[in-house]
Design goal:
By secondary structure, this protein is mainly α. The chain has one domain. The chain contains 17 helices and three strands. It has a three-stranded antiparallel β-sheet with strand order 1-2-3. Helix 6 runs parallel beside helix 17 and helix 8 runs antiparallel to helix 16. The protein is globular and about 55 Å long. The C terminus is likely disordered.
Length: 448
């Protein structure tokens, strides 16, 4: 891919996102996205990487939280019109997952009147089933044709990692605090969960933003762990930004998920080969930097982060509450096996399940919940098998990043709601499928 093409696609996506933030009218943003998608898919019909970069940047558009359909899915839908033959690239297991999920959705229709309008349900099906199980994998299946690790690394970092980090830091630094008077954390002055930048609200709630931060940070650490990897300086800067945002939001569960995924990737990358001293120093350096940097953090951040740690692991309030919530949600699922329609809030119980697998099961039936879990597990297993087939694969930062991001998605989906924010949801799933297909190359080529 030519540098000018990459830069043009990246800047076009970023400018569209910035315009969306300051325009703020979600109907207008959707119409603009439809026009942009139609034009660029015609102009770049023979430039798939340009389209991948542009769609990836659109996945990080904060307006996705309020638009009926996520903007990157609108873009991919137009792409699919020109590339319907791509349906043949889906594997057998993907087709069975789709069949099971949509069969489960079909049986849940009889209960939809209990969970919003028909339009709400159709939008949910598009965003949370058609998107991650069909459109996004079809779109990123084009990455199998790109054999350059350097090109893939550049696309992953600049199109899928950096935009979200820029927007989150900008909202926290320059946005106006939207006061939440019911927040238990208001007294600490930093975990007000919503910031307004331009005409868009940015949700930095720890149970929402924690999962994408864990995925983004673990992806960047994978670049440092890989035996050969460019863009290390960029990855280090992104890791630093993620650590700061972690401290601000105090998402301990996601921090642990990120740490577990990084340890897992580190162990895989050293499997059967001698671990270079540089890789070990990466881990030691970040731990040391974290311990030393703690002393220089603002007192409010130290106080809040300590309080969140005690709440999660000392007082056992969070753990106990989650177990009780899961028990209630499982009982409700057992009584409503065919589903009741999409809604994160279980009105009869007055709770959020805090578990995306339960959300899918309660919403569209137990089979749908199992298919969602199966998809994540299958991607993780296939990524690991892909690496084990050739020892050289463990030098591929894209493959390691895919394993790290999928591990975070698998772990965190047991404890929180990635589905609560379509911006974060689309970015994480785009990273997962991007790395899954980019890691399936038959040979490793570092330069093009």
């Amino acid at each position: 891919m030519r540098e000018i093409d990459f830069l043009l696609a990246f800047l076009l996506g970023m400018l569209f996102n910035i315009g969306s933030i300051y325009y703020g009218n979600y109907v207008g943003v959707m119409l603009a996205a439809i026009i942009l998608s139609a034009i660029m898919n015609v102009l770049w019909v023979k430039k798939p990487i340009n389209l991948i970069v542009l769609a990836s940047v659109l996945a990080a558009n904060p307006a996705n939280l309020s638009t009926s359909i996520s903007l990157n899915l609108i873009f991919i839908a137009f792409w699919f019109i020109f590339h319907m033959e791509a349906i043949r690239t889906l594997s057998t297991w993907s087709l069975w997952v789709l069949f099971g999920a949509f069969l489960s959705v079909f049986t849940s229709v009889v209960n939809w009147q209990t969970s919003g309008t028909i339009f709400t349900q159709l939008a949910a099906i598009t965003n949370y089933l058609i998107g991650p199980l069909l459109l996004i994998p079809l779109f990123y299946s084009q990455m199998k044709k790109v054999h350059s690790v350097t090109s893939n690394a550049k696309a992953l970092l600049w199109a899928l990692v950096i935009p979200s980090i820029i927007y989150l830091l900008s909202a926290h630094t320059f946005g106006d605090i939207v006061i939440d008077f019911t927040s238990l954390f208001q007294q600490y002055g930093i975990n007000v969960t919503i910031y307004r930048l331009g005409n868009v609200n940015f949700h930095l709630t720890r149970t929402q933003v924690g999962i994408p931060l864990a995925a983004l940070s673990s992806v960047c650490v994978s670049f440092l762990i890989a035996h050969k990897s460019e863009y290390r300086i960029v990855a280090i800067c992104c890791i630093g930004a993620c650590i700061y945002l972690f401290l601000v939001t105090g998402s301990w569960g996601s921090i642990l998920a990120a740490m577990l995924s990084v340890i897992f990737v580190f162990l895989l990358s050293s499997f059967g080969v001698r671990v270079p001293l540089r890789q070990s120093l990466v881990i030691v350096s970040f731990v040391s930097a974290g311990l030393i940097g703690w002393e220089y953090l603002p007192e409010t951040i130290q106080r809040y982060f300590t309080w969140r740690f005690e709440q999660s692991f000392v007082t056992e309030m969070t753990v106990f509450d989650r177990i009780q919530i899961w028990q209630l949600s499982l009982s409700y699922l057992a009584d409503n096996l065919i589903g009741r329609g999409w809604d994160l809030w279980i009105a009869p119980l007055g709770i959020y399940p805090h578990n995306d697998y339960l959300v899918y099961g309660i919403s569209f039936g137990v089979i749908c919940g199992l298919m969602y879990l199966l998809t994540i597990v299958q991607i993780l297993i296939l990524n690991i098998k892909n690496g084990k087939n050739q020892t050289l694969r463990w030098s591929d930062p894209i493959l390691l990043a895919g394993i790290a991001a999928t591990s975070v998605l698998f772990i965190n989906s047991f404890f929180d709601h990635l589905t609560a924010n379509r911006w974060y949801y689309n970015v994480v799933w785009s990273i997962v499928w991007f790395c899954y297909y980019a890691g399936q190359r038959r040979r490793i080529n570092y330069h093009g």
